[in-house]
Design goal:
The chain is mostly helical. Helix content is 68%, strand content 0%. The longest helix has 31 residues. The N terminus is likely disordered.
Length: 208
């Protein structure tokens, strides 16, 4: 008789603990917030929606996923989701300050903030490379996208920001891909799409 802690059976049905995977909502929050922000960057809609969607899905949802990762002993996702969750809480704050003229952020502060998180994404990609192929690719797209948008803001060259926005849209597409795999594996015990092999040996968890 199998229990919740058993490994996957021959039929592929996954046996896991009674704790849900926080990565499901973490990836969902990342996808929605990132796509919304980049569509605004490309002029599809205004930044008002970025404030609400970014604060809710990018901020609250990702921080929640990060803190829940703490309770299951997942250091990688604890750090990554908290880092980008708080990033998405700060960014709407920058927008609000600009609208209200209250603690307004000006000059190089915002692009410098983005550049810091670009470097963090590159650092996270190294650890992510021990999981599978898609996860480090996603983080590399985040790092490149934020770096290009920061460069565009520093230089005043809009072209950098546009290219950066497309890299970040690519990151949201890759995160959606991981979310599909994780969701069906967790709920149906079936691997529906491949995440690819890890680039670096070290993690026993192939999930994103």
């Amino acid at each position: 008789m199998s229990t919740l802690g058993d490994p996957p059976s021959r039929s592929g049905a996954r046996r896991h603990s009674g704790t849900a995977d926080p990565g499901l909502i973490g990836l969902l929050g990342f996808v929605i917030a990132t796509l919304t922000a980049q569509l605004a960057h490309l002029g599809v809609h205004n930044e008002s929606v970025v404030f609400w969607v970014g604060a809710a899905f990018g901020g609250i949802v990702q921080v929640t996923a990060g803190m829940l990762s703490y309770f299951i002993g997942d250091d990688f996702h604890f750090v990554v989701y908290n880092a980008f969750g708080w990033y998405w809480i700060c960014m709407p704050g920058f927008l609000l300050g600009g609208e209200l003229g209250f603690f307004e952020v000006s000059g190089p502060a915002k692009p410098l903030f983005m550049l810091i998180f670009s470097l963090l994404a590159f650092g996270f990609a190294v650890a992510g490379a021990t999981h599978n192929t898609v996860l480090p690719l996603t983080l590399l797209c985040v790092g490149i996208g934020l770096g290009l948008e920061a460069t565009g803001a520093f230089s005043g060259a809009d072209g950098f920001g546009v290219v950066g926005a497309w890299f970040l849209i690519g990151a949201s597409a890759l995160a959606t891909y991981m979310l599909i795999e994780k969701f069906y594996w967790r709920t149906m015990g079936r691997h529906v799409i491949p995440l690819g092999p890890a680039w670096i040996a070290g993690s026993a968890d192939s999930e994103s």
